Amino acid sequence: MVGTAQNDVFSAASQKAKRAGLPAGLFLASFAMLVTAFVDPAPALDAPPARAPETTPLPMFKNPRAALRAGLESYHAGDAATSVAALRYAADGGEPLAQWKLGRMYADGDGVARDDAKAYDYFSKIVDHFAEEEPDPRERSMAANAFVAVGVYLRDGLSSAKIEPDLGRAFDLFRYAATYFRNADAQYNLARMYLDGQGVKKDMRQSVNWLELAARKGHPQAQAVLGRLMFDGQAGGASQKARGLMYLTLARDAVAGGGANEQWIIDSHAKALASASEGDRKAAVALLEDYLRERN
Known about the structure:
Layout: H1 2-20, E1 34-35, E2 55-56, H2 64-76, H3 80-92, H4 96-108, H5 116-130, H6 140-156, H7 167-179, H8 184-196, H9 204-216, H10 220-231, H11 241-255, H12 263-275, H13 278-295
Antiparallel strand pairs: 1-2
Helix pairs in contact: 2-3, 3-4, 4-5, 5-6, 6-7, 7-8, 8-9, 9-10, 10-11, 10-12, 11-12, 11-13
């Protein structure tokens, strides 16, 4: 009788698994629940009914680092949805790379429904972590990206997470990432705050300085803004139409075929090109050749 009862239990469990379509290797990429049914042998004919099966969740990852590796492998294999569970396990275990990857996935709607509130939470964990701890050289780019992401959320506000704009905090985050990590995105955003007087007093000199640093790193938005300021004679000193047109050309080429969000760069270049003299155009070509030669 006992053997029959056990066979029935395991047979039922097997049928449930088949109906659910559970793949045999699922535990290699996501959380798994190992369900063990305990069936008491009947000591007498009037024994009480068997207890309901107990389930015990057993994490199948040895540690958060192992979960991180599994999550990234699943993601790069094109299975973003499956990678989320493993990455969450790693992120909850304090792995910054898992926190950053989930932040990017939620911010971009990559494999998950876009959720800026969750993205903000994951990026904020990285900011808090590296505010007190020196990042490994391999983590610097990731950390800088998280600082910039939180800065943008705080600059613009995030209604879905009930976060009000905090320009002062955003400025501090951009400045930290711009100076400590030398991140081009941070340098560009910092320059825009100086240019627009957001969270700080307007300062064209500071804005141009930060724009130049980002532009030299190949940041197209910084190149476009700097080029427009130079071409219009707003960057300080004498007009620099040829150099401004050079930067606008670099920016235009970088975003050619891009989305509608970059159309302003193409329009700025077209406007400058239309009003430039023949001499300015030739000078811009020469400057562009020198610029590309130096980078190569």
